[in-house]
Specification:
Layout (H helix, E strand, L loop, with lengths): L2 E5 L1 H9 L6 H9 L6 H7 L4 H10 L3 E7 L18 E2 L1 H5 L9 H16 L4 H8 L4 H19 L1 H16 L1
Helix pairs in contact: 2-4, 6-7, 6-8, 6-9, 8-9
């Protein structure tokens, strides 16, 4: 059973402003929600109490269900929760998002954060937040290089090289 979640407007606002002051465990999980990963993938990245974390984010209105994979049955919903409107999503779409060409600084920054978070998981939060706060390519590039080092330590040299090529190559074009 695989469920696809996305951030609600409240979730997006929390990422940008921290107005709700989510605990670090919930904030880290919220950062990982992207509308493409299945709950199965999310459970691998959320280190502590993944099911409870996703349920809490959903109950508090930070995330919402947008789809189930074709072979998935609807998940058990907490009592009183609104029924989701399921849509069939091919399983291939839940595994990896296509790499989009970067056309602007904002897109480069978003790609840097998403790719870093995908590769490192919740441990990426502190640097991802710094990346989100950058206002120029000159501020972002040193952080991308730091992320490359962390990815190299966590995932190996090839993953770090691929990350750098995707971002530093596209940032220079």
């Amino acid at each position: 059973m695989a469920t696809i979640y996305r951030k609600t407007a409240k979730g997006q606002s929390e990422i940008e402003t921290r107005a709700q002051r989510l605990p670090p465990r919930l904030r880290s999980a919220l950062i990982l929600v992207d509308g493409r990963r299945s709950d199965v993938d999310m459970r691998k990245l959320i280190l502590q109490q993944p099911e409870e974390t996703l349920r809490t984010l959903s109950e508090q209105g930070f995330i919402e269900i947008i789809a189930f994979t074709q072979d998935a049955a609807p998940p058990r919903m907490p009592p009183g929760a609104p029924a989701p409107r399921p849509q069939a999503v091919p399983a291939a779409q839940t595994v990896a998002a296509p790499v989009m060409p970067v056309r602007s600084f904002e897109a480069t920054r978003a790609q840097a954060v998403r790719s870093f978070t995908d590769l490192v998981g919740p441990m990426a939060e502190a640097l991802a937040i710094k990346m989100e706060r950058t206002r120029s390519l000159d501020e972002l590039l040193p952080l991308v290089r730091t992320a490359q080092t962390i990815i190299g330590n966590a995932r190996g040299g090839q993953a770090a090289a691929d990350y750098g090529t995707r971002l530093l190559g596209s940032a220079r074009s």
